[in-house]
Every structure is written in C-alpha cells, then in structure tokens.
# Entry
Amino acid sequence: MADKSGFFGRLRERLGKTRSGLVTGVMGVFTRHSRIDEEVFEELEEILIQADLGVDTTLALVEQLRDEAREQKLEDPQDLLTLLKNALLTLLREGDHTMVWKAPQGVHVTLIAGVNGSGKTTTIGKLAAHLKADNKSVVLGAADTFRAAAAEQLTQWSERVGVPIIKDQEGADPASVAHDAASAAVSRAADCLIIDTAGRLHTKVNLMEEIRKIERVLGKQIPGAPHEVLLVLDATTGQNGLQQAKHFAETLSVTGIVLTKLDGTAKGGIAVAIQKQLGIPIKFVGVGEGVDDLQPFDPKEFVDALFASE
# Structure
C-alpha cells in the first residue's frame, strides 16, 4: 500500500487521545511509586481498563506482569514499561495479519461486513483505491440493497477510483447482486472482487442469515470464495464494538478486522481486547478520512506509536 512511511507519523499523531489517557496514566503510576508493590498493579489495572483493553484482557496482562516482575526480581516500577510493551506486542502479533489479495485460482473475493456507521463503505473504497494503485483489476459488488444511500456512496467511490461496480435497485435480493458481481468479475478476469453487505445490526438473526446466503452463493461461483471476510469495526464504540465482533464471528467465518476511526477515540486499547478475546487478527487500521489513512496493521508500529513520546 502507498505512503507506508508517512503512515507511522500519522498513526503516532492520531493515537494521541489514547496515548494521553493510557501512556500518561501508566507513566504517572510508575513515577508516583518508588518501588513495585501491589498498589502499582492495582492502579495499572484501572488505567488499562479505562483505555478499553477490557477487564479480562487487563487482568491477564497485569497477572503476567506480576509474574515476570517476580521472576526477574524487579523493584523499579519504570522497568514494568518494557514488560508491558513486550506483552502487548506479543499479544497483537498473534494470528495472520497479512492480506495476499490473490486466490489459488480465479478471482480473489473479499466480503465486507459490519454495522451501519462503522465506515464499511468508505473502507471498501479505500481498499479498491490501494488495489488499483498496485495495478490490480477490481470489481465492486453493492450487495447492501437495504440502505438507499449505500449503493450511491459505493458508486461515488467506484467513479473516483475508476473501477466497475455491479448493483441493483433498492430492495433487490443481496445474494442476487453478489451472484451478478461474481459473474462480472469472472467474465472480466478481474484480480479482486469486493462485496459490500448491509450494515446489519448484529441482533437481527434474519439479516445475519442472509449474509451467510451471500457466502454460499459466492462459493458456488468462485472456488473458495469468499477468501476473506473482513469485519469493519468503529474503534470509538469500544467494548460495544467487541460485542458486535463476537456476534458476527458466531455467524460468519471472519478472517480479519478493519479497525476504523482510531484517531477519534481515547479507547484505542480495544485493538488489544479484540485480539485477545476473539483471536481474530486486525488486518487494517484507519486513522483518518484520506485514502492513505487506511493501512495494513503492523503490531510493532502500533505499540511504538502508542508509547511514542510527544
């Protein structure tokens, strides 16, 4: 993807809200105490939970820090910072964060899911732009036929990026649109097909069933499709986003998370909670409106940006 070198700077800058809460809080704990004691760990727990790492994730991390501090006979609270960064990095590195964008045979199909307002359609547009810049041919499928503006918004992206879009009228059968999009992608010998789906509320069982139908339709037309199922989550929703992810993961074979709007939240720790509690790797992170503000997730860059000095 383009502009990777400049992305670290933007990531560091736009994680400022999370950093001001998390890192400032953590450093405050370490400087207030002259030695490692139980009070240090209790204060650390509170700060990590506030940064939305979640109770379960926080308790596991702090217990790990306790054990390591004991084993290494550490006394200075400042030494816990290195342990914390390493623990977060180890956790975030779990799973496969890479996107290959190449199918074993034929068109590579990516299904995009997520609730309304998560940044789903915009994410599709940005992914298409990056793929086009990498000289890949892309077809978009507008299978969100419930929201009138959805196909319109995706059409604007298709025109902006210069890739074809397959769509139907509002209220059309989404699986039928997915079928037509797959047929078009095959006939054009496209490299990639990206399918948008309705911004389902995760509590609506019938809508979740429908997205499974789309999966089945795609699989009949293109071997192994969908090859990726990306769930777009809005980082500003915090723990609610984690609950959404759990529901989607119970219904779909989610292969990766796209975490958007990290620039607008003090709760960027949700990235850690998602990885720990769901075991679904984060594939992309978004920190702004620009096309290059969506980039592949790099665990080390994320942790470095989170703890970078101002």
Observations:
- Strands lie at 108-113, 138-143, 165-166, 192-197, 228-234, 256-260, 282-286, 294-296.
- The chain has a mean pLDDT of 89.
